[in-house]
Structure formats: C-alpha cells, structure tokens
From TrEMBL:
Compartments (UniProt record): Membrane
Annotated GO MF terms: ATP binding; polysaccharide binding; protein serine/threonine kinase activity
InterPro entries: Kinase-like_dom_sf, LRK10/LRL21-25-like, Prot_kinase_dom, Protein_kinase_ATP_BS, Ser/Thr_kinase_AS, WAK_GUB
Family matches, as Gene3D superfamilies: Phosphorylase Kinase, domain 1, Transferase(Phosphotransferase) domain 1
Keywords: ATP-binding, Glycoprotein, Kinase, Membrane, Nucleotide-binding, Serine/threonine-protein kinase, Signal, Transferase, Transmembrane, Transmembrane helix
Keyword set includes Membrane: yes
Keyword Glycoprotein applies: yes
Cellular component GO terms held in the UniProt record: membrane
Pfam families with a match to the protein in the record: GUB_WAK_bind, Pkinase
Protein's name in the database: Protein kinase domain-containing protein
Domain Protein kinase: 317-603
Signal sequence annotation: 1-23
Organism: Phaseolus vulgaris (Kidney bean)
Amino acid sequence: MVMWREMVLLVMFLLFVVQQICATHEREKTMDCPTSSCGKITNISRPFRLKRDPIHCGDSRYELDCENNVTVLYLFSGKYHVQAINYHNFTIRVVDPGVEEPSCSSLPRYFLSKSNFTDAYHGHAVAPYLTSQYQISDELSNYEKSLWKHIIYLNCSHPVSEKNKYVNAAPCVKWQSKGHIYAIGGDITAAELEVGCGVKLVSPTSWWGLDESSYTDMNRALLYGFEMSWLQFACDDQCQESPYDVCSFNTSSLNLQCALLCPDIFGIRLVRCGRGIWSQLLPYPAYFLENVFFILLGTIQGNLRFDAIDYFDMMVNGFKEKLGEGGYGSVFKGKLSSGSCVAIKMLSKTKGRGHDFISEVATIGRIHHQNVVQLIGFCVEGSKHALVYEFMSNGSLDKIIFSKDKSIEFGYDKIYNIAIGVARGIAYLHHGCEMQILHFDIKPHNILLDDKFIPKVSDFGLAKLYPIDNSIVTMTTVGGTIGYMAPELFYKNIGRISYKSDVYSFGMLLMEMASRRKNLNSHVEHSSQIYFPSWIYDYIREEKDIEMEEMGDFTEEEKKIVKKMIIVAFWCIQMNPDDRPSMNKVVEMLEGDIEKLEIPPNFSLYPYDATENSKQTIATEFTCSSSYSLEID
Ligand SMILES: *[C@@H]1O[C@H](CO)[C@@H](O)[C@H](O)[C@H]1NC(C)=O
Ligand SMILES: *[C@@H]1O[C@H](CO)[C@@H](O)[C@H](O)[C@H]1NC(C)=O
Ligand SMILES: *[C@@H]1O[C@H](CO)[C@@H](O)[C@H](O)[C@H]1NC(C)=O
Ligand SMILES: *[C@@H]1O[C@H](CO)[C@@H](O)[C@H](O)[C@H]1NC(C)=O
Ligand SMILES: *[C@@H]1O[C@H](CO)[C@@H](O)[C@H](O)[C@H]1NC(C)=O
Ligand SMILES: *[C@@H]1O[C@H](CO)[C@@H](O)[C@H](O)[C@H]1NC(C)=O
Ligand SMILES: *[C@@H]1O[C@H](CO)[C@@H](O)[C@H](O)[C@H]1NC(C)=O
Ligand SMILES: *[C@@H]1O[C@H](CO)[C@@H](O)[C@H](O)[C@H]1NC(C)=O
C-alpha cells in the first residue's frame, strides 16, 4: 500500500519537474532576448534579430546587421537600410542605399521588382518577406493590399512626349550612355509601353502620396523607401491553421485574423484561398498584379516567374512574333522568364462577363489529352483577356497538307497518324470529359503540331460547354468556317445541332488530308467541282482508282490509306446527323481494316435532292458570308 502511494507521488513529482523545466525553457526563449538596437532602430525583437544576438533569439530568416550604426537588411543580392519596423502591422520599411541622400540625381543601386519575390507564391519555400499583405477592413471584407508600387526607369531611343505617364528624368538623372531617360510612377500596362523603350531599372516605393507627374516627387518617394510584410511568419506563429491557409490583418482591430475569408473575383466566391495566393480552385497558383492577374493552370518546367515586368516583356516579345489571326483574336508567341515558349491568344472582344470567362477557362484548363492543346493559364487585365497555351513548334496542319513545297517530306503514313490523333482528340472532347465539349470549328488551321508532329486540337474559342445529359443544344449563336460547317448549322430542317456537327467538320478535314487539297476551290469554274466530295464520291462508287495530280506514283499501301480515309470521311459527312458515326466509332474505323469498311449509302450534298436551284442558293451563301449566326428554337 505504502509502496503504491509513494510510487504515485514520485511519478506526480517527476511530471511536475518536467513541466517546470519545459516552462522555464519557454520563458527563457523570450526573457533572455531583450530588444536590440542599432542606430535609429531601437526596438529589434522577434522575429528580427541582430547578427550578434544570442543564437536562440529571433528567427534566422529575419536577421539584420548593424554596420556603421546603420541597421541593414540583406535582401536577395542587395543590401538595404532599415528605416522602420512596425510590429503592429507586420511590416519593415527599407530604403535603397543609392537614394539615401536627398538629391534628385541619386539613383537606386538595385533593380528590384515584385518578380524577385514571386517564388514565394509556390507554397513550399515561402520567402521571409512578401510584397503584399492580406487585410480585412470594414469597407472591404478581405483583400490583398499591395505594399508598394514600382518606379520604372525607361531608356527610349526617341523622345516620348505625348504620354504624360512618361516623366522626363533627364534634368536629374545622368546616365553615362545616350538615350532618353523617363521614369514612370506606378505600374504600366503593356499597351503603355512604347516601342523603342526598354526597362532599365525598377525600384519600389511605399509612398502613397506620390505625384506621378513629377520626377522630384518620385525621387522623394524612393527616399521614403518601401515596406515588406512578414505577416506570414506571424500567422504561422499565432494561428493554428493548416499551412495552406491564409490569415489576414484586420485593420480595424489591428489584430491578426486567423479565420479565412476568401475574396470575390468577378462575383465568384472562391472555393479556397491558398498561401499568399488567391485561386479559384487549388492547386492553381494565381499571380496578382496591380490590375492584371495571371492564373497558371498547369506548370511548365517547374517554377514559373511572372510579374508585371515579365508580363510586359512577354507582351512585347509576343507582339513582335505574331503566329496567326483567329476568329476570336490574334495569337502571339511569348517567352516566359523560365525560357519556355507559349502561345498567347489575345481575345479581341470577349462575350459575356468576366465571370463566364473564368468559369469557361477553368473547365478548359482541366482538359488534358495528348491530342488537345493544353491551356496553361490566362491573363485578365481590365476588360482585356488572354489565353496562354503551350507552344506548338510545327504550326498548323494547313501549312503541311496544302503546302506546295516539295521539300516537306510528308508521306501518307504520317498524314494517317495525324488523322487518327485528331480523331482521338475530338473523341476525347466529346466523350472523355465530365462535360461534353463541342468544338464547332474543326479545320486544318485549328489542328496544331508539336515538335514530334503529334496533332493537337486547338482553339476552343467557339466551344461551348454542355452538361452531358442535356442532349438538346441550347446555345443560340454558333460560328464556324465555310467548307467545314455542318449543314444543320445553317439549315434548321436538317437536324439538330449536336456533337455530330463536329463529326461532319472532321469528315471535311479528313477529305482534305486524303486529297491534300482544299475541298472548296473558288477558282474552279465548273460548279460540280466546287465541292470536292461530290466528284470524289464517284471515284469510289465506280471503283475507279483515285487519280489526282499528286497521286501518280503512290504505293499500294498509300492508296489503301487514302481510300480508307475517304470512306471514313464519307461516313462523317452524311447529310443526316443521325447517319454520321460518333468520333469513337470514327477512331475505330480509321484504325481498323479497310476490308471491313462499308461504302456509305448515297448521300446528297445539299438538303433534299440536289437540284440546280438549291445548289445555287447555297453557293451564294458560301460566297457572301464567312460566318453564320442562327437561332435555334
Ligand atoms: C547611432 O545612431 C543613433 C541614432 O541615430 C545616435 O543617437 C547615436 O549617437 C549613434 N551612435 C554613434 C556611435 O554614432
Ligand atoms: C517594441 O516591440 C514590442 C513587441 O515586439 C512591443 O510590445 C513594444 O511596444 C515595442 N516598443 C516600441 C517603443 O515600439
Ligand atoms: C531582382 O531580379 C532581377 C532579375 O532577375 C535581378 O537582376 C536583380 O539583381 C534582383 N534584385 C536583387 C536586389 O537581388
Ligand atoms: C504600418 O504602420 C506604419 C507606421 O504606422 C505605417 O506608416 C504603414 O503605412 C503601415 N503599413 C500598412 C501596410 O498598413
Ligand atoms: C539607351 O538606349 C540607347 C539607344 O537606344 C543606347 O545607345 C544606350 O546605351 C542606352 N543606355 C543605357 C543606359 O542602357
Ligand atoms: C475586424 O475587427 C473588428 C473590430 O474588432 C470586428 O468588428 C470585425 O468583425 C473584424 N472583421 C472581420 C472581417 O472579422
Ligand atoms: C518541326 O519541329 C522540329 C522541332 O522544333 C523542327 O526541327 C522541324 O524543322 C519542324 N518541321 C517543320 C516542317 O516545320
Ligand atoms: C446519288 O445521288 C445523286 C444525287 O442525288 C444521284 O444523281 C445519283 O443517281 C445517286 N446514285 C445512286 C447510286 O443512288
């Protein structure tokens, strides 16, 4: 009995001792760390530490140094002078040592923009400082406050006078070399960047009273310095949240708000917010600039650094190299700072509101297939929208199939493989995703080839999304390209618009790939030859050999491929949508034996029997209009 009681007491005593030791250790941590001071910064405390402070004080990522009675902060490759540390709002204000003396000729020593911090957006390795802070105020429920704006120095080959954003810095700034020096306060948009001007230097300021038309004011703003936030550290320290959540600074209560409130973008309540980012659906990192945001839907080659400056560079490089002009805007080649190339489709006019755009883009971004062009991200700048796609080095299919250049060695085996790839891509859009995606503009220009000539279906500009069980298409306006458009798209009485309309377009494409010429040849005078399929049909029917200009010396194997492609194409371009096979069936037919392929029933190219009159009507429509709009009841 006694033994037991002693044992229990001993255990309790030991537990007490252990608890005390732990408690003292905790207290020691803060008690043994008096605030340090250096020069005018007299209140250096956790998370900050001076180099000579005891090793357990502060956090090593927030180490400051004291040099000649000045507190300095090493930031990337720069060394900045600390002006103030604000513990109540979690910011530190530093100044570039190049501008410290109050003279308008002084220039920042370092090039520093938000892009130097963008790795912090990638979740895992969070930089100790961020350039923006999540805040909650009474007016705005939750927003990301940018802590600075940039002062951008530009060197232009010619004088820029009419743009008042460009402030002449020449009276103050003496650069050794020639050129016209301008400074811009605040961020500029791609459109405002003058041709012939290059960004020489970027430096931040947190002086909000900046008069952006006066260079001396900009210089004064630089002298004030810029703030950076260590809110993330405080959040990690004080909130028991999962590491991917964001806490905010409540400017009314001057407290951290650990609970997560997601912001609205275009009226969409975001599902979840990421660390240092807002994103519609994680894990997409989003890049927010002053009035531009870029959402990366997939990563290419690891880290992608992206910010205002890169964005401008990308746009400027892009404008130099135009890849093409599509129905919904122009496509440019862009190069990201990671070195990867992208294709940027600048949408000329966007239908609907940003809300619709984002939900559409979010769906397209989830589509992954070897034969479908991958959407990498998108940018929104005010009303301007751009889609960023993976870059396809071998251009579009029309350049290859219609090429008269004999040096392009392109046999029918390759054409055949491309046809199968395209069919698989469309089949995936129709049947492989949770939403059925109708393309409505299948044509050679919209089939892109990568460096290994793997075809990818591109341009969903016209694609609308339908729930899979809603078989009746509710869209009211469709566009398309003459020569590929299914007849039901311009004739109400043929049948309803459905995925079979894409099958028709694919059939026309397949026909062109087999014959390597355009179906619609406006130069042919003979009306019976305007439409390619009608005469090639006779060749098949009458079992004549296909004899085309280019087909003289083809092997038996190649003739077989061509015949197979043409028969499949005929199935696809049946007038009645119900007679056309599904794309899955098309893939099967293309891959299967030619002996098993049935010759399709006779077909009429035009609605009802092809009389000269109805031909005439359609022929006029073909030449008069390049796109159709129609209403479907
Ligand atoms: C260091 O700076 C502080 C504040 O500017 C000043 O009071 C102090 O005299 C300076 N010390 C030396 C050694 O210069
Ligand atoms: C110094 O910082 C501590 C917190 O780290 C704060 O409680 C104190 O009020 C600060 N003192 C001054 C003078 O800013
Ligand atoms: C910021 O990034 C730019 C471009 O990568 C680099 O030239 C510059 O030195 C960086 N700034 C600092 C202070 O390290
Ligand atoms: C933080 O506090 C300082 C000093 O009160 C103030 O100048 C600065 O504007 C504040 N910064 C933010 C982001 O609230
Ligand atoms: C500014 O541009 C001019 C020509 O555009 C060039 O000669 C000069 O070297 C550039 N200056 C600097 C500082 O890069
Ligand atoms: C911020 O703090 C104020 C004052 O404590 C409080 O009334 C308000 O609800 C807080 N804001 C949010 C969004 O929680
Ligand atoms: C296709 O792409 C490869 C790799 O980029 C390139 O070497 C080749 O010249 C391209 N071929 C054509 C026909 O453009
Ligand atoms: C196929 O249709 C065309 C046009 O309607 C017609 O002239 C031709 O006789 C038909 N051929 C057969 C075998 O039915």
